[in-house]
Design a protein that fits this description.
The chain starts with 7 loop residues before the first strand and ends with a strand. It is mainly beta. A hairpin with a 2-residue loop joins strand 6 and strand 7. A 6-stranded antiparallel beta sheet has the order 3-2-5-6-7-8, with no helix packed on it. Strands 9-10-11 form a 3-stranded antiparallel beta sheet, with no helix packed on it.
Length: 135
Protein backbone atom coordinates (compact mmCIF):
# COMPACT_ATOMS: atom_id res chain seq x y z
CA UNK A 1 0.00 0.00 0.00
CA UNK A 2 1.40 3.36 -1.03
CA UNK A 3 1.63 6.01 1.67
CA UNK A 4 0.68 9.51 0.58
CA UNK A 5 0.77 12.68 2.56
CA UNK A 6 -2.43 14.62 2.23
CA UNK A 7 -1.93 18.21 1.28
CA UNK A 8 -2.76 20.51 4.13
CA UNK A 9 -2.27 23.98 5.48
CA UNK A 10 -0.69 24.42 8.88
CA UNK A 11 -0.45 27.91 10.37
CA UNK A 12 1.76 28.28 13.45
CA UNK A 13 0.55 30.98 15.83
CA UNK A 14 4.11 32.00 16.68
CA UNK A 15 5.85 32.20 13.35
CA UNK A 16 3.44 32.22 10.41
CA UNK A 17 1.21 35.17 11.34
CA UNK A 18 3.78 37.77 10.37
CA UNK A 19 1.49 40.29 8.68
CA UNK A 20 1.17 43.60 10.53
CA UNK A 21 -2.58 43.21 11.13
CA UNK A 22 -3.39 39.49 11.21
CA UNK A 23 -7.10 38.62 10.88
CA UNK A 24 -9.26 36.60 13.24
CA UNK A 25 -9.82 32.95 12.32
CA UNK A 26 -13.47 32.07 12.80
CA UNK A 27 -15.72 29.04 12.74
CA UNK A 28 -19.19 29.60 11.29
CA UNK A 29 -22.27 27.92 12.73
CA UNK A 30 -25.38 29.13 10.91
CA UNK A 31 -25.22 32.91 11.06
CA UNK A 32 -23.09 32.88 14.23
CA UNK A 33 -19.30 32.95 14.44
CA UNK A 34 -16.93 31.65 17.10
CA UNK A 35 -13.20 32.10 17.44
CA UNK A 36 -11.43 29.10 16.00
CA UNK A 37 -9.42 27.19 18.59
CA UNK A 38 -5.95 26.04 17.49
CA UNK A 39 -4.74 22.44 17.70
CA UNK A 40 -1.87 23.16 20.06
CA UNK A 41 0.58 25.68 18.59
CA UNK A 42 -1.08 25.79 15.16
CA UNK A 43 -4.26 25.87 13.08
CA UNK A 44 -4.54 23.08 10.52
CA UNK A 45 -6.84 22.43 7.55
CA UNK A 46 -6.98 19.73 4.90
CA UNK A 47 -6.78 20.69 1.25
CA UNK A 48 -10.04 22.40 0.11
CA UNK A 49 -11.22 22.86 3.70
CA UNK A 50 -12.54 26.36 4.36
CA UNK A 51 -12.28 28.77 7.25
CA UNK A 52 -13.65 32.27 7.76
CA UNK A 53 -11.25 35.14 8.40
CA UNK A 54 -12.44 38.50 9.62
CA UNK A 55 -11.51 41.90 10.98
CA UNK A 56 -12.86 43.84 13.97
CA UNK A 57 -14.12 46.50 14.67
CA UNK A 58 -16.49 47.80 11.97
CA UNK A 59 -14.72 49.63 9.11
CA UNK A 60 -11.68 47.36 9.54
CA UNK A 61 -11.58 45.30 6.35
CA UNK A 62 -9.43 42.66 4.71
CA UNK A 63 -6.97 44.55 2.53
CA UNK A 64 -7.23 42.27 -0.50
CA UNK A 65 -11.06 42.04 -0.58
CA UNK A 66 -12.44 45.19 1.06
CA UNK A 67 -14.77 42.91 3.03
CA UNK A 68 -14.79 42.40 6.80
CA UNK A 69 -15.45 38.63 6.51
CA UNK A 70 -14.40 36.16 3.83
CA UNK A 71 -14.08 32.40 3.39
CA UNK A 72 -10.65 31.11 2.47
CA UNK A 73 -9.84 27.54 1.39
CA UNK A 74 -6.63 25.63 1.98
CA UNK A 75 -4.58 24.88 -1.13
CA UNK A 76 -1.39 23.69 0.60
CA UNK A 77 1.21 24.87 3.09
CA UNK A 78 0.57 28.60 3.59
CA UNK A 79 -1.39 29.17 0.37
CA UNK A 80 -5.14 29.71 0.29
CA UNK A 81 -7.79 30.69 -2.23
CA UNK A 82 -10.16 33.48 -1.32
CA UNK A 83 -13.87 32.83 -1.99
CA UNK A 84 -14.75 33.99 -5.48
CA UNK A 85 -11.19 33.72 -6.77
CA UNK A 86 -9.13 30.82 -8.10
CA UNK A 87 -5.88 32.71 -7.50
CA UNK A 88 -3.41 31.40 -4.92
CA UNK A 89 -2.96 33.83 -2.05
CA UNK A 90 -0.19 33.56 0.54
CA UNK A 91 -1.40 33.72 4.13
CA UNK A 92 0.94 36.67 4.69
CA UNK A 93 -1.13 38.63 2.12
CA UNK A 94 -4.38 38.12 4.02
CA UNK A 95 -4.50 40.96 6.53
CA UNK A 96 -6.76 43.60 8.03
CA UNK A 97 -6.50 47.29 7.16
CA UNK A 98 -5.83 48.10 10.83
CA UNK A 99 -5.16 46.23 14.06
CA UNK A 100 -7.92 43.93 15.27
CA UNK A 101 -9.37 45.22 18.52
CA UNK A 102 -11.73 43.69 21.02
CA UNK A 103 -14.92 44.97 22.56
CA UNK A 104 -16.65 44.77 25.92
CA UNK A 105 -20.36 43.91 25.94
CA UNK A 106 -22.22 44.52 29.22
CA UNK A 107 -24.67 41.80 30.16
CA UNK A 108 -27.86 42.28 32.10
CA UNK A 109 -26.55 39.92 34.78
CA UNK A 110 -25.50 41.17 38.20
CA UNK A 111 -22.85 39.38 40.24
CA UNK A 112 -21.20 39.76 43.67
CA UNK A 113 -24.56 40.07 45.41
CA UNK A 114 -25.63 42.86 43.06
CA UNK A 115 -22.44 44.90 43.49
CA UNK A 116 -20.98 43.99 40.11
CA UNK A 117 -22.00 43.25 36.55
CA UNK A 118 -20.93 40.55 34.10
CA UNK A 119 -19.42 41.42 30.73
CA UNK A 120 -18.59 39.46 27.59
CA UNK A 121 -15.22 40.18 25.99
CA UNK A 122 -14.95 39.58 22.27
CA UNK A 123 -15.13 41.16 18.85
CA UNK A 124 -17.63 43.26 16.88
CA UNK A 125 -17.65 42.28 13.23
CA UNK A 126 -19.87 44.21 10.86
CA UNK A 127 -22.88 42.20 9.71
CA UNK A 128 -22.34 39.56 12.39
CA UNK A 129 -23.42 39.04 15.95
CA UNK A 130 -20.89 39.67 18.73
CA UNK A 131 -18.09 37.06 18.64
CA UNK A 132 -17.53 36.11 22.28
CA UNK A 133 -14.02 35.31 23.50
CA UNK A 134 -14.75 34.97 27.22
CA UNK A 135 -16.93 36.29 30.05
Amino acid sequence: MEYRLRRRCRVYLNGNLTQQHAPLFLKQSGNQYQLLQPSGPFFQWCQSESVVVGCSPAKNTLTNTGSDLVNISCIENLEFSIAGSSKRTALSDISCSSAVSGAIKPLDKPCANGLGQLYDIGFNIKGSSFVKYFQ
